[in-house]
Amino acid sequence: QKEVEQDPGPLSVPEGAIVSLNCTYSNSAFQYFMWYRQYSRKGPELLMYTYSSGNKEDGRFTAQVDKSSKYISLFIRDSQPSDSATYLCAPRSPTGRRALTFGSGTRLQVQP
Amino acid sequence: DVKVTQSSRYLVKRTGEKVFLECVQDMDHENMFWYRQDPGLGLRLIYFSYDVKMKEKGDIPEGYSVSREKKERFSLILESASTNQTSMYLCASSPGLAPNTGELFFGEGSRLTVL
Prior knowledge:
By secondary structure, chain A is mainly beta. Helices cover 0% and strands 53% of the residues of chain A.
């Protein structure tokens, strides 16, 4: 079993839709949960992160963590064509190695 | 802004050639990383370094080596390129012990094709 599992998509939605992107993980030591966004032909950039369980909101984006089920979600409200990108989850243990373990990424396409 | 610069965006090499991928960061970060990214497999860690002249193997180090002679520069070396090393290579850096999130800052990637 991979340490981090993510549906690769592609996921295609109309503009304005609510998008749900999800990851599961197996390492219960993970405490930080990051989402990276990667536009085509670019490197990934940190979108947002949460610590431990719960929700965190940043504009149209909400990150949610359920540690009991080892499930991570990223919700995008009022999706825009500019949100078209690959989204990668990256959970991390505070005492683990300095490198991140990434999910395989979900490719999202928002149609105008 | 943190800037991580990868020297070549696109390279085409022949099987058996020695390949150097260079990465420079301008934020005095201690940690530097090399990942490769392949469809369906995501980002996989090749090597990382937490100090000058220090290196540690990642998850897929076979066929690769690295060099870190200066803090700002981390090079990935393919001693004898093979077709299965055709991939997107991403360099990243992060500060210090990264006690909190451990955010990585990525370069734009180097797409290598081995014929």
